[in-house]
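Pasting two entries for a bug report.
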Amino acid sequence: MSAVIIDTDKCKKDKLCVLECPMKIITLNSDTGIPETVHNAENMCLNCGHCIAVCPYGALSLTSMKVEECHSVAPNWNPGIETIGNYFKARRSIRRFKNKTVEKEILEKLIEITAYAPTGHNSQTVEYLIFTDKEIIKELTLHVINWMREMLNNAPDIGKSMHFDMITRAWALGVDVVMHNAPVVIIAHGKKNNPNTATSCAIALTHLELIAPALGLGSCWAGYFTWCAMTYPPLRKALSIPDCNGIYGTIMTGYPMAKYYRIPKRKALVEWR
Protein backbone atom coordinates (compact mmCIF):
# COMPACT_ATOMS: atom_id res chain seq x y z
CA MET A 1 0.00 0.00 0.00
CA SER A 2 1.02 3.60 -0.39
CA ALA A 3 0.69 7.08 1.07
CA VAL A 4 0.01 10.36 -0.73
CA ILE A 5 2.68 13.04 -0.66
CA ILE A 6 1.60 16.65 -1.26
CA ASP A 7 3.98 19.32 -2.59
CA THR A 8 2.43 22.34 -0.89
CA ASP A 9 4.41 24.78 -3.07
CA LYS A 10 2.86 23.38 -6.25
CA CYS A 11 -0.65 22.76 -4.92
CA LYS A 12 -3.31 25.22 -6.20
CA LYS A 13 -6.06 23.95 -3.85
CA ASP A 14 -8.37 23.06 -6.76
CA LYS A 15 -9.69 19.89 -5.03
CA LEU A 16 -9.27 17.77 -8.17
CA CYS A 17 -7.37 15.08 -6.27
CA VAL A 18 -10.06 15.06 -3.57
CA LEU A 19 -12.84 14.64 -6.10
CA GLU A 20 -11.07 12.00 -8.19
CA CYS A 21 -9.68 9.67 -5.51
CA PRO A 22 -11.74 6.46 -5.89
CA MET A 23 -11.17 5.47 -2.25
CA LYS A 24 -11.92 8.97 -0.90
CA ILE A 25 -8.80 8.96 1.22
CA ILE A 26 -7.81 12.53 0.28
CA THR A 27 -9.54 15.42 1.97
CA LEU A 28 -8.87 19.12 2.49
CA ASN A 29 -7.34 20.62 5.58
CA SER A 30 -10.03 22.95 6.90
CA ASP A 31 -7.47 25.58 7.89
CA THR A 32 -5.04 25.61 4.95
CA GLY A 33 -7.17 24.21 2.13
CA ILE A 34 -4.26 21.92 1.26
CA PRO A 35 -5.14 18.27 0.53
CA GLU A 36 -4.25 15.71 3.16
CA THR A 37 -4.99 12.07 3.70
CA VAL A 38 -7.43 10.50 6.11
CA HIS A 39 -6.39 8.22 8.95
CA ASN A 40 -5.04 4.87 7.77
CA ALA A 41 -4.94 6.07 4.17
CA GLU A 42 -1.78 4.11 3.44
CA ASN A 43 -3.70 0.88 4.01
CA MET A 44 -6.60 1.90 1.79
CA CYS A 45 -4.71 3.40 -1.15
CA LEU A 46 -5.06 1.42 -4.39
CA ASN A 47 -1.86 2.83 -5.91
CA CYS A 48 -3.99 3.66 -8.95
CA GLY A 49 -2.29 7.03 -9.46
CA HIS A 50 -5.53 8.92 -10.17
CA CYS A 51 -4.38 11.74 -7.91
CA ILE A 52 -1.08 12.03 -9.77
CA ALA A 53 -2.74 11.86 -13.17
CA VAL A 54 -5.42 14.48 -12.50
CA CYS A 55 -3.25 17.19 -10.96
CA PRO A 56 -2.24 19.71 -13.65
CA TYR A 57 0.61 21.02 -11.51
CA GLY A 58 2.37 17.80 -10.53
CA ALA A 59 1.75 18.47 -6.86
CA LEU A 60 1.11 14.88 -5.79
CA SER A 61 3.17 11.72 -5.53
CA LEU A 62 2.79 8.38 -3.82
CA THR A 63 5.44 6.75 -1.71
CA SER A 64 5.40 3.99 -4.34
CA MET A 65 5.15 6.30 -7.37
CA LYS A 66 6.87 9.66 -7.81
CA VAL A 67 5.26 12.20 -10.13
CA GLU A 68 8.58 12.49 -11.99
CA GLU A 69 8.31 8.81 -12.92
CA CYS A 70 4.98 9.31 -14.69
CA HIS A 71 4.96 10.37 -18.35
CA SER A 72 2.81 13.28 -19.45
CA VAL A 73 -0.23 12.49 -21.59
CA ALA A 74 0.42 13.43 -25.24
CA PRO A 75 -1.85 16.28 -26.44
CA ASN A 76 -3.04 14.15 -29.39
CA TRP A 77 -3.55 10.96 -27.38
CA ASN A 78 -7.16 10.57 -28.56
CA PRO A 79 -7.19 9.81 -32.32
CA GLY A 80 -10.94 10.43 -32.62
CA ILE A 81 -13.91 8.11 -33.16
CA GLU A 82 -13.36 7.60 -36.90
CA THR A 83 -9.77 6.43 -36.48
CA ILE A 84 -10.33 4.37 -33.35
CA GLY A 85 -13.57 2.96 -34.72
CA ASN A 86 -11.88 1.82 -37.92
CA TYR A 87 -8.98 0.36 -35.94
CA PHE A 88 -11.28 -1.71 -33.71
CA LYS A 89 -13.53 -2.84 -36.56
CA ALA A 90 -10.60 -3.81 -38.78
CA ARG A 91 -9.15 -6.17 -36.19
CA ARG A 92 -9.16 -9.78 -37.39
CA SER A 93 -8.45 -13.06 -35.61
CA ILE A 94 -5.24 -14.23 -37.28
CA ARG A 95 -4.62 -17.94 -37.79
CA ARG A 96 -1.93 -17.85 -40.48
CA PHE A 97 1.43 -16.51 -39.46
CA LYS A 98 4.64 -15.81 -41.33
CA ASN A 99 7.54 -18.10 -40.54
CA LYS A 100 9.30 -15.20 -38.89
CA THR A 101 10.60 -14.71 -35.37
CA VAL A 102 8.93 -11.98 -33.36
CA GLU A 103 11.62 -9.82 -31.82
CA LYS A 104 11.76 -9.85 -28.02
CA GLU A 105 11.70 -6.04 -28.03
CA ILE A 106 8.34 -6.11 -29.81
CA LEU A 107 6.88 -8.56 -27.29
CA GLU A 108 8.25 -6.51 -24.39
CA LYS A 109 6.58 -3.40 -25.79
CA LEU A 110 3.33 -5.34 -26.23
CA ILE A 111 3.34 -6.47 -22.59
CA GLU A 112 4.47 -3.06 -21.32
CA ILE A 113 1.44 -1.37 -22.88
CA THR A 114 -0.91 -4.21 -21.92
CA ALA A 115 0.10 -3.69 -18.28
CA TYR A 116 -2.05 -0.54 -18.34
CA ALA A 117 -5.25 -2.54 -18.89
CA PRO A 118 -7.62 -2.10 -15.93
CA THR A 119 -7.57 -4.68 -13.16
CA GLY A 120 -10.16 -5.09 -10.42
CA HIS A 121 -9.29 -2.89 -7.43
CA ASN A 122 -6.04 -2.13 -9.25
CA SER A 123 -4.93 -5.56 -8.05
CA GLN A 124 -2.53 -6.04 -11.00
CA THR A 125 -2.65 -9.79 -10.52
CA VAL A 126 -2.08 -10.76 -14.16
CA GLU A 127 1.05 -12.83 -14.78
CA TYR A 128 2.29 -13.76 -18.24
CA LEU A 129 4.00 -16.87 -19.51
CA ILE A 130 5.41 -16.43 -23.01
CA PHE A 131 6.66 -19.20 -25.31
CA THR A 132 8.69 -18.39 -28.42
CA ASP A 133 10.36 -21.75 -29.11
CA LYS A 134 8.43 -23.51 -31.88
CA GLU A 135 9.47 -26.97 -30.74
CA ILE A 136 8.25 -26.32 -27.22
CA ILE A 137 4.98 -24.89 -28.57
CA LYS A 138 4.56 -28.03 -30.67
CA GLU A 139 5.13 -30.22 -27.59
CA LEU A 140 2.53 -28.25 -25.66
CA THR A 141 0.09 -28.54 -28.56
CA LEU A 142 0.56 -32.31 -28.56
CA HIS A 143 -0.76 -32.35 -25.00
CA VAL A 144 -3.91 -30.66 -26.29
CA ILE A 145 -4.25 -33.28 -29.02
CA ASN A 146 -3.85 -36.09 -26.49
CA TRP A 147 -6.49 -34.45 -24.30
CA MET A 148 -8.85 -34.25 -27.25
CA ARG A 149 -8.33 -37.93 -28.00
CA GLU A 150 -9.11 -38.80 -24.39
CA MET A 151 -12.22 -36.62 -24.53
CA LEU A 152 -13.38 -38.44 -27.66
CA ASN A 153 -13.09 -41.72 -25.74
CA ASN A 154 -14.48 -40.57 -22.40
CA ALA A 155 -16.98 -37.89 -23.44
CA PRO A 156 -17.63 -38.45 -27.15
CA ASP A 157 -20.68 -36.19 -27.33
CA ILE A 158 -18.71 -33.23 -26.07
CA GLY A 159 -15.64 -34.13 -28.12
CA LYS A 160 -17.53 -34.41 -31.39
CA SER A 161 -19.60 -31.28 -30.73
CA MET A 162 -16.30 -29.38 -30.41
CA HIS A 163 -14.88 -31.04 -33.57
CA PHE A 164 -12.12 -32.85 -31.69
CA ASP A 165 -12.39 -35.73 -34.15
CA MET A 166 -11.59 -33.50 -37.13
CA ILE A 167 -8.85 -31.61 -35.26
CA THR A 168 -7.04 -34.79 -34.23
CA ARG A 169 -7.29 -36.22 -37.74
CA ALA A 170 -5.83 -33.01 -39.14
CA TRP A 171 -2.97 -33.23 -36.64
CA ALA A 172 -2.22 -36.77 -37.81
CA LEU A 173 -1.91 -35.34 -41.32
CA GLY A 174 0.52 -32.66 -40.14
CA VAL A 175 -1.99 -29.81 -39.92
CA ASP A 176 -2.17 -27.83 -36.67
CA VAL A 177 -5.59 -26.26 -36.18
CA VAL A 178 -5.11 -25.89 -32.42
CA MET A 179 -2.26 -23.36 -32.30
CA HIS A 180 -1.87 -22.82 -36.06
CA ASN A 181 1.93 -23.03 -35.89
CA ALA A 182 1.98 -19.68 -34.13
CA PRO A 183 5.51 -18.44 -33.36
CA VAL A 184 4.46 -16.97 -30.01
CA VAL A 185 2.06 -18.18 -27.32
CA ILE A 186 1.12 -15.88 -24.44
CA ILE A 187 -0.67 -17.29 -21.38
CA ALA A 188 -2.33 -15.09 -18.75
CA HIS A 189 -2.51 -16.58 -15.28
CA GLY A 190 -2.65 -15.43 -11.69
CA LYS A 191 -3.58 -16.13 -8.10
CA LYS A 192 -6.76 -18.16 -7.70
CA ASN A 193 -7.50 -16.68 -4.29
CA ASN A 194 -7.96 -13.19 -5.71
CA PRO A 195 -11.51 -12.80 -7.06
CA ASN A 196 -10.34 -10.19 -9.57
CA THR A 197 -7.79 -12.37 -11.35
CA ALA A 198 -9.94 -14.19 -13.91
CA THR A 199 -11.61 -11.02 -15.16
CA SER A 200 -8.36 -9.06 -15.08
CA CYS A 201 -6.66 -11.69 -17.24
CA ALA A 202 -9.49 -11.60 -19.77
CA ILE A 203 -9.39 -7.80 -19.91
CA ALA A 204 -5.61 -7.80 -20.25
CA LEU A 205 -5.57 -10.25 -23.16
CA THR A 206 -8.36 -8.33 -24.86
CA HIS A 207 -6.23 -5.20 -24.67
CA LEU A 208 -3.19 -7.15 -25.86
CA GLU A 209 -5.06 -8.41 -28.92
CA LEU A 210 -6.07 -4.86 -29.81
CA ILE A 211 -2.59 -3.44 -29.23
CA ALA A 212 -0.88 -6.11 -31.32
CA PRO A 213 -1.74 -4.70 -34.80
CA ALA A 214 -0.09 -1.38 -33.90
CA LEU A 215 3.14 -3.38 -33.56
CA GLY A 216 2.59 -5.20 -36.84
CA LEU A 217 1.35 -8.37 -35.14
CA GLY A 218 -1.77 -10.46 -35.58
CA SER A 219 -3.28 -12.61 -32.86
CA CYS A 220 -6.04 -15.04 -31.99
CA TRP A 221 -7.45 -16.48 -28.78
CA ALA A 222 -6.42 -20.09 -28.22
CA GLY A 223 -9.56 -21.40 -26.52
CA TYR A 224 -8.80 -25.10 -26.94
CA PHE A 225 -5.39 -24.59 -25.33
CA THR A 226 -6.82 -22.71 -22.34
CA TRP A 227 -9.57 -25.27 -21.81
CA CYS A 228 -7.02 -28.06 -21.85
CA ALA A 229 -4.61 -26.19 -19.57
CA MET A 230 -7.38 -25.69 -17.02
CA THR A 231 -8.44 -29.33 -16.92
CA TYR A 232 -5.66 -31.62 -18.17
CA PRO A 233 -2.87 -32.35 -15.63
CA PRO A 234 -0.16 -33.29 -18.19
CA LEU A 235 -0.38 -29.89 -19.88
CA ARG A 236 -0.60 -28.11 -16.56
CA LYS A 237 2.56 -29.91 -15.43
CA ALA A 238 4.36 -29.06 -18.67
CA LEU A 239 3.59 -25.37 -18.17
CA SER A 240 5.09 -25.40 -14.64
CA ILE A 241 2.63 -22.79 -13.41
CA PRO A 242 2.26 -22.74 -9.59
CA ASP A 243 -0.72 -24.67 -8.21
CA CYS A 244 -1.95 -21.49 -6.53
CA ASN A 245 -2.40 -19.85 -9.92
CA GLY A 246 -5.27 -20.29 -12.35
CA ILE A 247 -4.87 -20.19 -16.13
CA TYR A 248 -7.40 -17.75 -17.55
CA GLY A 249 -6.53 -17.14 -21.19
CA THR A 250 -4.14 -17.84 -24.04
CA ILE A 251 -3.27 -15.76 -27.10
CA MET A 252 -1.26 -16.90 -30.09
CA THR A 253 0.51 -14.15 -32.00
CA GLY A 254 2.98 -13.46 -34.76
CA TYR A 255 3.33 -11.58 -38.03
CA PRO A 256 0.18 -12.16 -40.11
CA MET A 257 0.44 -13.86 -43.46
CA ALA A 258 -2.47 -12.00 -45.06
CA LYS A 259 -3.65 -8.42 -45.32
CA TYR A 260 -7.35 -7.60 -45.03
CA TYR A 261 -9.14 -4.96 -47.07
CA ARG A 262 -12.74 -4.89 -45.81
CA ILE A 263 -14.65 -4.94 -42.56
CA PRO A 264 -17.31 -7.68 -42.33
CA LYS A 265 -20.61 -6.60 -40.83
CA ARG A 266 -21.41 -7.24 -37.19
CA LYS A 267 -24.48 -6.57 -35.08
CA ALA A 268 -24.97 -5.55 -31.48
CA LEU A 269 -27.73 -7.12 -29.42
CA VAL A 270 -29.09 -4.34 -27.24
CA GLU A 271 -32.13 -3.95 -25.01
CA TRP A 272 -32.80 -0.39 -23.91
CA ARG A 273 -34.54 0.17 -20.58
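Entry 2 (this is the one that rendered wrong in the viewer):
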Amino acid sequence: MADLNVLATKLSEEFSECLVSSMEALGELTIVVRARDLSDVMLKLRDGDGLRFEQLTDLCGMDYSTYGDGAWEGKRFAVVYHLISVANNCRLRVRVFAEDDDFPVVASVNDIWPAANWFEREAFDLYGIIFTGHPDLRRILTDYGFIGSPFRKDFPLSGHVEMRYDAEQRRVIYQPVTVEPREVTPRIVREENFGCN
Protein backbone atom coordinates (compact mmCIF):
# COMPACT_ATOMS: atom_id res chain seq x y z
CA MET A 1 0.00 0.00 0.00
CA ALA A 2 2.81 2.44 -0.86
CA ASP A 3 0.27 4.55 -2.81
CA LEU A 4 -0.76 7.45 -0.57
CA ASN A 5 -4.12 7.84 -2.31
CA VAL A 6 -5.04 4.27 -1.38
CA LEU A 7 -3.95 4.91 2.22
CA ALA A 8 -5.86 8.21 2.40
CA THR A 9 -9.02 6.51 1.13
CA LYS A 10 -8.63 3.63 3.60
CA LEU A 11 -8.15 6.05 6.50
CA SER A 12 -11.12 8.24 5.56
CA GLU A 13 -13.33 5.11 5.40
CA GLU A 14 -12.00 3.69 8.67
CA PHE A 15 -12.02 6.93 10.65
CA SER A 16 -14.74 9.02 9.04
CA GLU A 17 -16.03 10.21 12.45
CA CYS A 18 -12.61 10.83 14.01
CA LEU A 19 -10.65 12.44 11.18
CA VAL A 20 -10.36 16.23 11.39
CA SER A 21 -8.21 16.57 8.27
CA SER A 22 -5.85 14.76 5.95
CA MET A 23 -3.11 16.14 3.72
CA GLU A 24 -0.20 14.91 1.67
CA ALA A 25 3.11 16.74 1.79
CA LEU A 26 6.70 15.74 1.08
CA GLY A 27 5.70 12.22 0.13
CA GLU A 28 3.92 11.50 3.41
CA LEU A 29 0.34 11.55 4.53
CA THR A 30 -0.58 13.51 7.65
CA ILE A 31 -3.88 13.06 9.44
CA VAL A 32 -5.26 15.16 12.29
CA VAL A 33 -7.46 13.49 14.90
CA ARG A 34 -9.31 14.86 17.92
CA ALA A 35 -7.70 14.35 21.33
CA ARG A 36 -10.71 12.42 22.65
CA ASP A 37 -10.40 9.88 19.80
CA LEU A 38 -6.63 9.43 19.95
CA SER A 39 -6.43 6.11 21.84
CA ASP A 40 -9.07 4.40 19.67
CA VAL A 41 -7.54 5.67 16.43
CA MET A 42 -4.02 4.63 17.40
CA LEU A 43 -5.14 1.15 18.45
CA LYS A 44 -6.93 0.68 15.11
CA LEU A 45 -3.88 1.99 13.23
CA ARG A 46 -1.74 -0.65 14.92
CA ASP A 47 -4.14 -3.61 14.72
CA GLY A 48 -6.58 -2.83 11.88
CA ASP A 49 -6.78 -4.93 8.74
CA GLY A 50 -4.92 -3.23 5.91
CA LEU A 51 -3.28 -0.74 8.31
CA ARG A 52 -0.89 -2.54 10.68
CA PHE A 53 1.32 0.37 11.72
CA GLU A 54 3.54 -1.75 13.92
CA GLN A 55 6.18 0.84 14.71
CA LEU A 56 6.15 4.23 16.35
CA THR A 57 9.44 5.77 15.22
CA ASP A 58 9.04 9.24 16.69
CA LEU A 59 6.77 11.43 18.75
CA CYS A 60 7.32 15.13 19.31
CA GLY A 61 5.61 18.08 20.89
CA MET A 62 4.83 21.23 18.91
CA ASP A 63 4.07 24.82 19.92
CA TYR A 64 2.15 26.58 17.15
CA SER A 65 1.84 29.94 18.97
CA THR A 66 4.04 31.79 16.45
CA TYR A 67 3.58 29.46 13.49
CA GLY A 68 3.27 31.28 10.16
CA ASP A 69 4.62 34.51 11.69
CA GLY A 70 1.76 34.59 14.16
CA ALA A 71 -0.96 33.96 11.57
CA TRP A 72 -1.85 30.60 13.16
CA GLU A 73 -5.43 30.30 14.33
CA GLY A 74 -6.20 27.24 16.37
CA LYS A 75 -4.99 25.28 19.34
CA ARG A 76 -1.46 26.00 20.48
CA PHE A 77 0.02 22.62 21.46
CA ALA A 78 0.09 19.44 19.41
CA VAL A 79 1.73 16.05 19.53
CA VAL A 80 2.94 14.56 16.24
CA TYR A 81 3.41 10.80 15.85
CA HIS A 82 5.43 9.13 13.07
CA LEU A 83 4.28 5.59 12.32
CA ILE A 84 5.60 2.89 10.00
CA SER A 85 3.77 -0.11 8.58
CA VAL A 86 6.43 -2.63 7.66
CA ALA A 87 3.76 -5.02 6.39
CA ASN A 88 2.35 -2.42 3.97
CA ASN A 89 5.55 -0.47 3.30
CA CYS A 90 4.20 2.97 4.21
CA ARG A 91 4.55 5.80 6.69
CA LEU A 92 1.94 7.93 8.39
CA ARG A 93 2.10 11.11 10.42
CA VAL A 94 -0.65 11.62 13.02
CA ARG A 95 -1.21 15.00 14.68
CA VAL A 96 -3.41 15.66 17.69
CA PHE A 97 -4.00 19.05 19.29
CA ALA A 98 -4.41 19.40 23.05
CA GLU A 99 -7.80 20.91 23.87
CA ASP A 100 -6.57 23.33 26.55
CA ASP A 101 -3.72 25.75 25.73
CA ASP A 102 -3.15 26.59 29.41
CA PHE A 103 -2.89 22.94 30.50
CA PRO A 104 -2.18 20.72 27.47
CA VAL A 105 -3.23 17.11 28.00
CA VAL A 106 -3.14 14.17 25.57
CA ALA A 107 -3.62 10.45 26.21
CA SER A 108 -0.47 8.33 26.39
CA VAL A 109 0.11 5.75 23.66
CA ASN A 110 2.75 3.96 25.74
CA ASP A 111 0.48 0.93 26.19
CA ILE A 112 0.07 0.69 22.39
CA TRP A 113 3.72 1.33 21.44
CA PRO A 114 6.13 1.03 24.40
CA ALA A 115 8.65 3.07 22.37
CA ALA A 116 6.53 6.14 23.21
CA ASN A 117 7.69 6.11 26.83
CA TRP A 118 10.77 8.34 26.56
CA PHE A 119 9.35 10.40 23.69
CA GLU A 120 6.36 11.34 25.85
CA ARG A 121 8.63 12.19 28.75
CA GLU A 122 10.64 14.44 26.43
CA ALA A 123 7.51 16.27 25.19
CA PHE A 124 6.39 16.63 28.81
CA ASP A 125 9.77 18.00 29.87
CA LEU A 126 10.30 20.41 26.98
CA TYR A 127 6.71 21.53 26.19
CA GLY A 128 4.80 20.81 29.40
CA ILE A 129 2.37 18.46 27.64
CA ILE A 130 0.77 16.00 30.09
CA PHE A 131 0.26 12.41 28.87
CA THR A 132 -2.53 10.78 30.87
CA GLY A 133 -1.93 7.12 31.59
CA HIS A 134 1.85 7.36 31.26
CA PRO A 135 3.48 5.05 33.84
CA ASP A 136 6.38 7.36 34.81
CA LEU A 137 5.87 10.92 33.57
CA ARG A 138 8.82 12.94 34.87
CA ARG A 139 11.58 15.12 33.46
CA ILE A 140 14.10 13.40 31.22
CA LEU A 141 16.43 16.10 29.82
CA THR A 142 16.34 19.03 32.23
CA ASP A 143 17.39 19.13 35.87
CA TYR A 144 14.88 18.07 38.53
CA GLY A 145 14.73 21.62 39.88
CA PHE A 146 14.24 23.17 36.44
CA ILE A 147 11.34 25.60 36.17
CA GLY A 148 9.35 25.95 32.96
CA SER A 149 9.20 24.30 29.54
CA PRO A 150 12.20 25.40 27.45
CA PHE A 151 10.79 24.58 23.99
CA ARG A 152 7.70 26.73 24.43
CA LYS A 153 7.86 29.81 22.24
CA ASP A 154 7.28 32.11 25.23
CA PHE A 155 10.19 30.68 27.26
CA PRO A 156 12.96 33.33 27.62
CA LEU A 157 16.03 32.64 25.49
CA SER A 158 18.36 33.02 28.44
CA GLY A 159 16.19 31.01 30.83
CA HIS A 160 15.37 31.96 34.40
CA VAL A 161 18.20 30.56 36.53
CA GLU A 162 21.67 29.21 35.98
CA MET A 163 23.43 26.47 37.87
CA ARG A 164 27.10 26.53 38.83
CA TYR A 165 29.45 24.94 41.32
CA ASP A 166 30.43 27.25 44.17
CA ALA A 167 33.88 26.33 45.53
CA GLU A 168 33.36 28.24 48.81
CA GLN A 169 30.06 26.48 49.59
CA ARG A 170 31.35 23.26 48.03
CA ARG A 171 28.03 22.56 46.29
CA VAL A 172 26.00 23.35 43.21
CA ILE A 173 23.97 26.56 43.51
CA TYR A 174 21.21 28.16 41.50
CA GLN A 175 21.20 31.90 40.85
CA PRO A 176 19.40 34.31 38.51
CA VAL A 177 20.76 34.27 34.97
CA THR A 178 23.49 36.81 34.28
CA VAL A 179 24.17 37.58 30.64
CA GLU A 180 27.26 39.60 29.77
CA PRO A 181 27.09 41.55 26.51
CA ARG A 182 29.60 40.33 23.94
CA GLU A 183 30.57 40.84 20.33
CA VAL A 184 28.98 38.15 18.16
CA THR A 185 29.92 39.53 14.74
CA PRO A 186 32.64 37.41 13.07
CA ARG A 187 36.04 39.09 12.61
CA ILE A 188 35.78 38.72 8.85
CA VAL A 189 32.78 41.08 8.95
CA ARG A 190 34.05 43.35 11.78
CA GLU A 191 37.52 43.98 10.42
CA GLU A 192 37.71 45.40 6.92
CA ASN A 193 41.12 43.92 6.06
CA PHE A 194 40.88 40.62 7.95
CA GLY A 195 42.78 37.87 6.14
CA CYS A 196 44.42 40.20 3.60
CA ASN A 197 48.21 39.89 4.01
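Dev reply: Rendering is fixed now. As a check, the viewer should reflect this: The domain at 4-141 is CATH 3.30.460.80 (Beta Polymerase; domain 2).
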